[in-house]
Amino acid sequence: MGYELRVVRQAPIAFADLAKAIVPAGFELDESYEIVARHGGAAHTVGRWREQVVGEPGSDWQVAQLVRLAAVLGARLVGEDGESYAVRDGVVEVWTGDSAMEIGKFDEIIEAGPAAWTA
């Protein structure tokens, strides 16, 4: 199990409402409750429904998709250590306390696709 990011809402979202909200935004929900987005004709897992949306990203693309998914659901994307992820002025950022670190330009990350992080 990798590092988890959670989509956190003020009020929990019901599964049926999740399914209705994500489809118009271009996400898909499969029978195993995985939320996927497409790139290059292939489906790539972005997160999973486990009474809330949880993702274990392995690329900046997956982080950007989770940020987009959180926005679609009227929620925030939060990491295990309390940091939050958002798009500001077209740039994906991670916030820890009062300091922000840029991950990259949202459009460029989405266009680049789900290339896995390397050590």
Low-pLDDT segments, ≥5 res = none
In terms of quaternary structure, the protein is single chain
Helix fraction? 10-25%
Main sheet attributes: strand count, strand direction, barrel closure: 9 strands, antiparallel
Task: Categorize the overall geometry.
Answer: globular
User: Can you count the beta strands?
Assistant: 9
Physical arrangement of strands within the biggest beta sheet: 2-3-4-5-1-6-7-8-9
What is the alpha-carbon Rg in Å? 13 Å
Query: Between the first and last Cα atoms, what is the distance in angstroms?
Result: 17 Å
Secondary-structure element order, N to C = EHEEEEHEEEEH
Per DSSP, what share of the residues sits in E-state strands of 2 or more residues?
Answer: 35-45%
Q: Please give the domain count.
A: 1
Structural class per helix/strand content? alpha+beta
Structure characterization notes:
- The chain has one domain.
- The chain contains 3 helices and 9 strands.
- It is α+β, with helices and mostly antiparallel strands.
Which characteristics define this entry?
119 residues, alpha+beta, nine-stranded antiparallel sheet, 3 helices, 9 strands
Q: Could you provide a short overview of the structure?
A:
By secondary structure, the chain is of the alpha+beta class.
